[in-house]
């Protein structure tokens, strides 16, 4: 299990360190070019982490998605809390390094923390909806045998990009409790006070999407776990060959 925990830590660390780091370097994201750069960075980073760690830990790097996979029975419940802990640790460590390496640039943008710019109500609804669709895409690419696994990184990365471009100026388009809470712990103030939005809404959105996908999936035989035991399957295959 250590390999899985390290993979989730590194994946979430990369998401926050590179994505929120880009936010700190860009500074003002009121212009379209700045918004594009930041959310392209988030999307490409997630895509890269999926291709890097997908076979090891599932590259979930998101507590909301972790819960969704567990509720849909595609991920072990016993790993939910450990995954949450290492995901939050990875995000927090990234923000800690931003404090050391970027200093005032990181402070000026609240360490990349997400804020409900359009109001609490709008942020709650928007984060719920955006995470809902992110979870649907993840359910299809990670738990359905009919979807080519090589498409996972591209599909999820572009979903994050599209959601980010839409929600940036409204809620920040977090869709990820660890991505919001890690920076907020260092930013404090309003960022920390409103973090509950980016915990409650994504968890609820992911939960509904996971259950809905299970209802519309169709054939149960087409379902698979987020992380399948590939070595075990190979050993079983070797035994069958030897016995025949």
Give a description of the structure.
This protein has 244 residues and is mainly α. It has a single domain (2-223), classed as Up-down Bundle (Glycerol uptake facilitator protein). 73% of the residues lie in helices and 0% in strands. The chain has helices at 2-26, 32-57, 63-71, 80-101, 104-108, 120-143, 152-167, 177-187, 189-193, 197-216, 230-243. α3 (63-71) packs across α6 and α6 (120-143) packs antiparallel against α7 (152-167). The longest helix has 26 residues, at 32-57. It is globular. Mean pLDDT is 90; it is low at 230-244.
Spell out the key features of this protein.
globular; disordered C terminus; mainly alpha; single chain; 244 residues; Glycerol uptake facilitator protein
Low-pLDDT residue intervals, each spanning 5 or more residues: 230-244
Question: For the record, what CATH class applies?
Answer: Mainly Alpha
For the termini, the CA-CA separation is 33 Å
Q: Tell me the domain tally.
A: 1
Provide a count of the helices.
Answer: 11
The CATH homologous superfamily corresponds to Glycerol uptake facilitator protein
**How many β-strand stretches?**
0
- Order of secondary-structure elements: HHHHHHHHHHH
Helix content: over 70%
**Which geometry do the CA atoms define?**
globular
CATH architecture, by name, is Up-down Bundle
Structural class: mainly alpha
Would you tell me which CATH topology applies?
Glycerol uptake facilitator protein
What is the CA-atom radius of gyration, in angstroms?
Answer: 18 Å
Kindly estimate the percentage of residues that lie in beta strands according to DSSP.
under 5%
| Average of per-residue pLDDT values | 90
């Amino acid at each position: 299990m250590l390999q899985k925990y390290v993979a989730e830590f590194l994946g979430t660390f990369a998401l926050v360190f590179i994505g929120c780091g880009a936010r700190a370097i860009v500074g003002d994201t009121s212009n379209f070019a700045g918004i594009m750069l930041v959310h392209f960075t988030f999307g490409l980073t997630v895509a890269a982490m999926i291709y890097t760690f997908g076979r090891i830990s599932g590259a979930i790097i998101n507590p909301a998605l972790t819960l969704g996979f567990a509720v849909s029975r595609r991920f072990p419940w016993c790993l939910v809390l450990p995954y949450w802990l290492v995901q939050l640790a990875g995000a927090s460590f990234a923000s800690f390094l931003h404090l050391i390496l970027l200093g005032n640039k990181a402070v000026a943008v609240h360490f990349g923390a997400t804020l409900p710019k359009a109001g609490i109500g709008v942020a709650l609804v928007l984060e719920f909806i955006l995470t809902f669709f992110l979870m649907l895409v993840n359910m299809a690419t990670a738990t359905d045998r009919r979807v080519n696994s090589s498409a996972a990184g591209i599909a999820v990365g572009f979903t994050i990009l599209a959601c980010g471009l839409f929600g940036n100026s409204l809620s920040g388009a977090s869709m990820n409790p660890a991505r919001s809470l890690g920076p907020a712990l260092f930013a404090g103030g309003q960022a920390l006070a409103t973090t509950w939005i980016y915990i409650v809404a994504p968890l609820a959105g992911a939960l509904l999407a996971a259950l809905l996908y299970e209802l519309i999936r169709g054939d149960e035989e087409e379902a698979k776990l987020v992380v399948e035991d590939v070595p075990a399957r190979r050993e079983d295959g070797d035994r069958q060959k030897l016995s025949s």
